[in-house]
Amino acid sequence: MKRTLQYISAVLIALVLGTSSLFAAGNEGVILYPNPASEVLNIRLEDGSESISHVSLHNLLGQVVYEVDIDLNLDGGYIVEITDLPSGIYLVQVELTQGRTVVQRITKR
Questions:
Q1: What pLDDT is recorded for position 29?
Q2: How far is CA 5 from the centre of its chain?
């Protein structure tokens, strides 16, 4: 949990400073679409060697606005309903079964 909070803090700092290199490194193989999104967010894995184990969405204050543990082997992907979220920028944290954590930025219309 502490590592996750440190990573989210680093991502928030990158957002404030306007840097995007943090989002490019280590995010290979995880695709979020559409972006911007208004109703649903699709999370898809390019590689079948990993599966999604946990998904969380954080607002720019670092608050968790959506969170789910995934017990099924979802090699293909996962769909997040975001209709009820206010418009804005969110950080999507995807934890994979091989221990890798990916954080990407999305915009909710």
A1: 85
A2: 14
Full residue range of the structural domain in which residue 50 is found: 2-108
* Distance (Å, whole) CA 47 – CA 77: 11
The CATH number linked to 36 is: 2.60.40.3080
Of 11-25, 32-46, 66-80, which has the strongest mean pLDDT? 32-46
Domain count, the chain: 1
Separation between Cα atoms, residue 36 and residue 64, nearest integer Å: 19
Q: Burial letters for 79-89: b for 16+ Cβ neighbours within 10 Å, e otherwise?
A: ebebeebeeee
Confidence band of 19 (pLDDT split at 50, 70, 90): very low
